[in-house]
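Q: For a teaching handout, I want to show students what a protein-ligand complex looks like in token form. Below are the inputs, and the small molecule is pyridoxal-5'-phosphate. Please produce the holo structure.
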Amino acid sequence: MISLAAGDPNFLLPDYIANAVNNAIKIGQTHYCFGGDPELKAEIAKYYSKYGYETNPGQVAITAGGSESIFKSYAAILDEGDEVIAFDPAYSGGTMAPAYFGAKTVYANLKKRDDGFFDFDEEALKNAISSKTKGLYVENPGNPSGKVYGKKECKVIADLANDHDFIVFSDETYTEYIWTGADHFPIITLPGMENRVIVAQAMTKMFAWAGMRTGWVIAGPELAPYVQRAPGAGASWPIQRGCLVGLRDGYQFVLDMRKEYEERIDYAVKRLNDMPGVKCPKPEGAFYPFADVTGTGMTCTEFVQGLQKETKVRAVPGGGYGKGAGAGSVRFSMIRPLSNTTMLSWFEHKEGMMLEDAMDRIEKFVLSHA
Ligand SMILES: Cc1ncc(COP(=O)(O)O)c(C=O)c1O
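A: Here is the structure, written as tokens, with pyridoxal-5'-phosphate included.
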């Protein structure tokens, strides 16, 4: 089986991370670390300032990954009966969690373009706003949409948030992986937004350590105490020390992954577009080519189920990311290496199991059905 399903990157972490974690254990950083490691919080504040928002460690809360960042943000804000708007399609961890707080997710469809790309639809967002709207969940860049919201679109969202008095839950998990050449634009910097935005980030994708469970939340000075008070597991202290070293000294690793991801995306997008009935726009950000397969005559679910059964390649049907606006598209996670890679994976690179092989299998499947 070749899985292109979950967003769990293949990369093996550099040794200095293991050494930092090991050293933290050796010197006794195995006790409570109430409120999070102060050095790490300072490093996170410094890291985020590169996007143009000057923050301080007091505005940062450490979490056990992106999911907890989202959950903690919701816990701080949502009450029973509230509504959270989410785009459709959008990451299910963000769209399903409001229900835990008795809140309802209301979907605003993204607009599917002719090339299969899901774009921002201002009207759909406006139509989704009601007197119960407490927040908007937006992943920037989007998963699975690959949509990157630049300053212009963030301004539209910010104006609506200010006018209708709601919070923006800004999931900024993939800010290091933008393919348009633009820098990430932080919505928290717009007028009136500092105490209206809660930023969720994680090392999960940025540093390829899904299983190390480390993330954080950044909020303006008025909101931050509420977010910090919301219960959560946080990250263990030794892992926080590894995170500190990664953020401080490990940026080359991010740059190397960035280069490799883009090669994979460009390769997969080309291969998918060459298949009959498949249209695959290059994502603007994140690492999930999201291909429109309606031209093959199969639904996205039939496509994914058939692909798995007949060729042992796993992918994710787009219809599951919301109420169904993403139906007809299939998400392919770029977590398999190309055969010319020089970066190590946590598994052995075997012939027949690389990204090229996955694409060969998908092509065979499409040719036999389309
Ligand atoms: C947009 C987005 N936010 C958050 C997460 C959750 O990350 P974590 O595994 O750190 O909980 C993911 C994971 O796929 C994601 O795609």
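A: Two things your students might notice: The pocket of pyridoxal-5'-phosphate is lined by residues 7, 65-67, 91, 93, 139, 143, 171, 173, 202, 204, 210, 215 (CB under 6 Å). The first helix runs from residue 15 to 26.
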